[in-house]
Automatic annotation (TrEMBL):
PANTHER family: 3-DEOXY-D-MANNO-OCTULOSONIC ACID TRANSFERASE, MITOCHONDRIAL-RELATED, 3-DEOXY-MANNO-OCTULOSONATE CYTIDYLYLTRANSFERASE. It comes from Paludibacter jiangxiensis. Residues 22-206 form the 3-deoxy-D-manno-octulosonic-acid transferase N-terminal domain. Keywords: Cell membrane, Lipopolysaccharide biosynthesis, Membrane, Transferase. The keyword Glycoprotein does not apply. The active site is at E60 (proton acceptor). Involved in lipopolysaccharide (LPS) biosynthesis. Catalyzes the transfer of 3-deoxy-D-manno-octulosonate (Kdo) residue(s) from CMP-Kdo to lipid IV(A), the tetraacyldisaccharide-1,4'-bisphosphate precursor of lipid A. It is an enzyme of class 2 (transferase). This is 3-deoxy-D-manno-octulosonic acid transferase. SUPFAM superfamilies: UDP-Glycosyltransferase/glycogen phosphorylase.
Length: 407
């Protein structure tokens, strides 16, 4: 099976190099992996103790970040190597100061794995949520390096639980301990004999609580929102915006902050064309003009997690596409959260709905009915917001539980 796996890795690596000629993401990955070993050799300090964290992409990094930063607080003498597989993670966080070294993960070939571990010599390895690289896991176990999986979710559809999944199940034996998000994951793992498991929850709850505590003061947004009932639409896509704008354009008692997922000039101009009420662009206005607008368009990135605090209702985009974006960033501020129909793979979204703090809409009329109810019944609005906050607060603590072993 390893022969077949390694052949697949080789083909995948060749495909990336070929695609790099015309695909920007593939180009970044190929170039980044080529430079990984030179960065490691330059920055790794012999004799220092390193803990290796691996995140596939940006979302997994956000789950691992509380652990990295808590490790640094508890054991400042320890060094951290952070690896990414996806350019969408590395290119955003390559300058993250919480880690001592940040690189692309070298491709999972036997030669790369041994070279990587020989240079880093990690005393522990932490994989975040997913990523089951067979050669890395096998070599870590062979070298006796404690290896942990954190914030993981397991589902019956995964190969581990299929009749043909014996080889995949053996990979799980490489982990010293598995920290899973929910009881169902623990029960599934028991069915295949994996018992070194702790239900710790999701470290993202700790992360969003930390973000909220450190939220930026945004005077321009505050000037816009002061004394108004505001809906904050975060990471919106055109299908989300069609529903949002139809309602907004016909309801003068509602004010809107929209932070689209794509902030290209063409998309911002499309948003401007759809709005029938006065609007202002964040980067092209001042506090006085923003206070006179009915809609504030956030045409830049990096502010959304702080902006949610200025709304009474939040809408999270992506639910009419491949899946919703981060609902917890809004829920932590104690506001009702609305999103589209594609949310079922997101445990936190399902939990928010069950808690009464969140709602899914699949078409325009559902959204109209829900918004009318929230805006016309202030007690109901406040109750739903409290449910959101209670849900987040009730799920804090995963970081401390996991750190009990990691530190």
């Amino acid at each position: 099976m390893f022969l077949l796996y390694n052949s697949g890795i080789a083909l995948y690596q060749a495909g990336i190099k070929l695609a790099a000629k015309w695909n920007e993401k593939a180009g970044l990955l190929a170039k980044g992996q080529n430079s990984s070993f030179s960065i490691l050799q330059d920055k790794i300090i012999p004799g220092q103790k390193y803990v290796w964290f691996h995140a596939s992409s940006l979302g997994e990094f956000e789950q691992g970040r509380p652990l990295i930063e808590e490790l640094k607080r508890r054991s400042p003498e320890k060094k951290v190597v952070l690896t990414f597989f996806s350019p969408s993670g590395y290119e955003v966080r390559k300058n993250y100061t919480g880690a001592d070294v940040v690189v692309y993960l070298p491709m999972d070939t036997p030669g790369n794995v041994c070279r990587f571990l020989d240079i880093v010599k990690p005393e522990k390895a932490v994989f975040i949520k997913y990523e089951f690289w067979a050669n890395y896991l096998t070599e870590l176990k062979k070298r006796g390096i404690p290896t942990y999986l954190v914030s993981a979710i397991f589902r019956p559809q995964q190969a581990f639980f299929k009749w043909y999944g014996g080889w995949y199940r053996k990979l799980l034996s490489a982990f010293t301990h598995l920290y899973v998000q929910d009881n169902s994951s623990e029960e599934l793992l028991k069915t295949i004999g994996v018992t070194n498991v702790t239900v710790a929850g999701d470290t993202r709850f700790d992360r969003v609580a930390e973000i909220a505590a450190q939220a930026k003061e945004l005077p321009l947004v505050e000037a816009f929102a002061k004394g108004r009932r505001v809906l904050v639409a975060g990471s919106s896509w055109p299908l989300d915006e069609d529903i949002l704008f139809d309602y907004f354009n016909s309801h003068d008692d509602l004010f809107l902050i929209v932070a689209p997922h794509v902030t290209s000039e063409s998309h911002i101009e499309d948003i401007c064309r759809k709005l029938k009420r006065p609007f202002a662009r964040y980067t092209k206005t001042d506090e006085q003009y923003a206070a006179q607008a009915d809609c504030l368009i956030i045409d830049c990135i990096g502010l959304l997690s702080s902006i949610y605090r200025y709304g009474q209702i939040a809408y999270i985009g992506g639910g009419f596409g491949v899946g919703i974006h981060n609902v917890l960033e809004a829920a932590v501020y104690g506001v009702p959260v609305i999103f589209g129909p594609n949310y079922h793979k997101f445990r936190e979204a399902c939990g928010l709905i069950d808690a009464g703090g969140s709602f899914s809409v699949s078409e325009s009329q559902q959204y109209v009915t829900l918004m009318d109810k929230l805006l016309q019944n202030n007690d109901y609005l406040l109750e739903c917001g409290k449910n959101s906050a209670d849900f987040v607060n009730g799920n804090l603590g995963a970081t401390d539980l996991i750190m009990h072993k990691l530190a």
